[in-house]
Write a sequence for this structure.
């Protein structure tokens, strides 16, 4: 199941991973463009354009396309993230030819109907409302505002009601052209397919490209951020939702493997220190986890938890106490070995899913410039040493954490959180 790569032209690359024991395949048409390539006036445009992709062509309605997809034993979906976006089809491998041709037919015949656009705007506006009403998503959105001030990485992928309402069919048309005709396109396939056959088919299509720098990098965010806390009173909530974290390494940094080990030990798994103490031992929380959020040029380490008002300050102090112990005493060899095995196990489990392999290959190629097989990542975890992982604990700069808090709270409820009052920001609007 080796990964194979063929550069069709300077813009288009085919990446495949053959899994010929399957009856299905997953194909992703993914470009290196996402919400971080937008500005304040255009935020949400990439996402809305993705939605419009499914709204029919010049001679076929959205329903007719849906019927065609289903008749091929396939599913079709789209996504937009901060750095990449695309369309994914999961299908019976025997129908590859028809599925492949259908995608390119839609790509080159996408319609820009005003009525369909207004309908889809309403769908996206509901999506924005749902996101704002989801405490976890809303807390992370506020957290992004202070971690990436005045930078597109802080923008909501779906945009704002103001920006979404402002978009015209010309905006959609221009975004579609710039993203899908003038950005790097990775056609990533995993499943029961033949690489040479697909590469030959693509070569014969003579796909267009223009004389531009396809590897142009987006504007980098600031690396040194003032420590701040942002909070919003939400009387409609029963619990306090808190997310805190600090800047760490980007996706391209090899230290990410060791940080994954540390994250597992701190709060990323059920057996982690914070989970065992906060939930299992003291019963203070139901939800608590830590995670790494890595982009091509910057990364975040974060902790998220929900609590009652009466337990909020105590639980945060416990979490900080566990981090302080980690910095003072390090991890144990037993924790190290368990975390390494857990990380390898998660990779092995994901390897059984063609969707996971396809997405991983496209993501790594577009953001890093090369693919990394599951086997290579497992080898990277195997090569880690106990002493090396311990040596990276100093990267956890507890004194530099920032955070976002939402819930049925007021300024006086925050208590002593170790941040100067003038650096505590109250957010009055959800938008």
């Amino acid at each position: 199941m080796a990964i194979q790569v063929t550069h069709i032209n300077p813009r288009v690359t085919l990446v495949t991973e053959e899994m010929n024991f399957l009856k299905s395949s997953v194909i992703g048409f993914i470009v290196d463009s996402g919400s971080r390539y937008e500005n304040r006036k255009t935020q949400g445009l990439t996402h809305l354009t993705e939605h419009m992709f499914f709204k029919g062509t010049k001679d076929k309605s959205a329903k007719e396309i849906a019927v065609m997809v289903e008749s091929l034993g396939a599913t079709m979906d789209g996504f937009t993230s901060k750095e990449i976006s695309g369309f994914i089809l999961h299908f019976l491998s025997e129908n590859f030819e028809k599925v492949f041709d259908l995608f390119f037919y839609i790509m080159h015949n996408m319609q820009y109907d005003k009525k369909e656009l207004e309908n889809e705007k309403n769908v996206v506006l509901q999506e924005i409302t749902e996101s704002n009403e989801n405490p976890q998503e809303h807390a992370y959105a506020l957290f992004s505002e202070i971690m990436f001030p005045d930078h597109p990485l802080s923008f909501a992928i779906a945009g704002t009601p103001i920006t979404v309402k402002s978009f015209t069919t010309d905006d959609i048309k221009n975004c579609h052209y710039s993203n899908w005709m003038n950005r790097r396109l990775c056609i990533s396939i995993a499943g029961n397919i033949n690489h040479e056959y697909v590469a030959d088919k693509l070569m014969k299509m003579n796909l267009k490209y223009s004389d531009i720098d396809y590897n142009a990098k987006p504007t980098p965010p600031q690396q040194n951020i003032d420590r701040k806390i942002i909070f919003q009173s939400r009387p409609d909530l029963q619990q306090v939702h808190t997310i805190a974290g600090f800047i760490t390494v980007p996706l391209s940094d090899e230290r990410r493997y060791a940080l994954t080990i540390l994250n597992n030990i701190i709060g990323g798994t059920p057996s982690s220190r914070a989970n065992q103490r906060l939930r299992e031992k003291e019963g203070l929380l139901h939800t608590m986890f830590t995670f790494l959020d890595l982009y091509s040029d910057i990364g975040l380490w974060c902790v998220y938890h929900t609590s009652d008002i009466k337990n909020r300050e105590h639980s945060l102090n416990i979490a900080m106490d566990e981090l302080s112990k980690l910095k003072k005493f390090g991890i144990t060899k037993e924790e190290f070995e368990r975390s390494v095995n857990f990380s390898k196990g998660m990779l092995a489990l994901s390897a059984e899913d063609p969707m996971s392999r396809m997405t991983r290959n496209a993501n790594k190629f577009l953001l890093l410039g090369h693919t990394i097989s599951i086997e290579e990542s497992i080898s990277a975890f195997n090569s880690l040493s106990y002493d090396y992982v311990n040596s990276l604990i100093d990267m956890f700069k507890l004194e530099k954490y920032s955070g976002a808090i939402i819930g049925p709270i007021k300024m006086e409820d925050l208590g002593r959180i170790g941040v100067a009052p003038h650096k505590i920001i109250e957010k009055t609007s959800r938008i």
Summary: The domain at 3-205 is CATH 3.30.830.10 (Cytochrome Bc1 Complex; Chain A, domain 1).
